[in-house]
Amino acid sequence: MLQRRVVVVVYSGAQALDITGPIEVFDTVNRLLPKSGARYRIEFVSIDAPLVRTSSGVMIEAAPLEAGRGPIDTLLVPGGWSLGDALKNRALVSWIGQAATRSRRVTSVCGGSFLLAEAGLLDGRRATTHWAYCEEMACRYPDVTVDPEPIFVWDGRFVTSAGVSTGIDMALALVEADHGAALALEAARFLVLFLKRHGGQAQFSAVLDAQLADHAPIRAAQEWILDNLEDPLPVAEIAQRANMSLRNFARVFRREVGTPPGQYVERTRIARARELLETTDLTTSQVARRCGFAAPETFIRSFGRALGLTPNQYRHRFQVVSPSGLVVQPDQADRSSV
Predict the structure, then answer these.
(1) Is pLDDT at 333 greater than 80 in this prediction?
(2) Of 317, 95, 110, 335, which Cα lies nearest the Cα of 208?
(3) Please, what CATH class does the domain formed by 206-337 belong to?
């Protein structure tokens, strides 16, 4: 029977879901594969063997690092709250670097990308990690191009995923590469995942990221923007509605929200466009008009800058379809997918 050897590096204080999320995907695929299919053989190795306690208290039985000798199909490195200690463990970092040379592909979840970078494996490559630590990673490893937006980044044989649950999305992408899209989607359905997300999808919503201003006039301005996206929304008009001077409004808005008001308006338009592309059959021109873009061409350029996809490409990958095959309308869809 053909097998794909998956070696998971675990260490004390690693995050359990970084580990269990991807391996549950692989285990599910094993159960869905025909008898002739190449199954995943999952092994745990650790410098803290034989019993490793994760940050949440889940215990994992693991073999010593030496047991991970020989060819590896997929090397998986998780993150965790004890990542600082793991990065100082030269034996662990050295083993990861050496094991990577024997691996067909090398993957990480969340802060696990720090360990790959510490081993020198990501120099000259594009990578990601949890959004909260992207800036730190970029400062610590200047030879790595850190992209804070995608839920996972595939660069050559190296695949780095963002925060925690995105390891599941990454594992599904690995399955798709190994066995095709149909089996990956079947596994996603079996695991009752709302959507099998493509790596280019943003880690979090621009609207949710910047929705809680403390200053009441700024909160009111944000609400007004959301309710009037079809309109031009010049910053001067928004400032006037907030009863503030343009200069003061721009200064306070940026302080409260973390982005200039004009940029916030565009990000909010893109977020609304994503929702409409995911949940309706509106044409590109109709979506552009509903989101306040002056012309479809302007919308396509802005959307491409934000997500690296055309609106049609995004719709093809992320449109939500009900079991009947009908596109779910906005008031029926889960708005958390925006």
Answers:
(1) no
(2) 335
(3) mainly alpha
Element (H, E) at 174: helix 166-179
pLDDT at 206 over 70: no
For 301-327, write each residue's pLDDT tens digit. 999 988 888 999 888 876 754 333 444
Residues 132-171 have pLDDT tens digits of 899 999 999 999 999 988 889 999 999 999 987 899 999 9
- Identify which of 46, 57, 40, 77 has the alpha carbon closest to the alpha carbon of residue 167: 77
**Using 50, 70 and 90 to split pLDDT, how confident is the model at 202?**
low
User: Could you tell me the fold of the domain covering 3-190?
Assistant: Rossmann fold (3.40.50)
Distance CA 130, CA 137 (A): 10
Q: How many residues does the chain have?
A: 338
CB 298 within 8 A of CB 241: no
Q: For 79, how many CA atoms within 13 A lie in the half-sphere containing its CB?
A: 22
Interior angle at CA 325, CA 323 and CA 329, nearest 5? 90
37 SS3 class:
coil
Alpha carbons 52 and 50: distance in angstroms, whole number: 7
Q: Which residue has the tokens 């934000």?
A: 306
**Average pLDDT, whole number, for the chain?**
87
Q: What is the token pair recorded at 41?
A: 């053989």
> Domain segments of the chain: what residues?
3-190, 206-337
Secondary structure of residue 57 in the 3-state scheme = coil
The CA distance from 200 to 300, in Å, is: 16
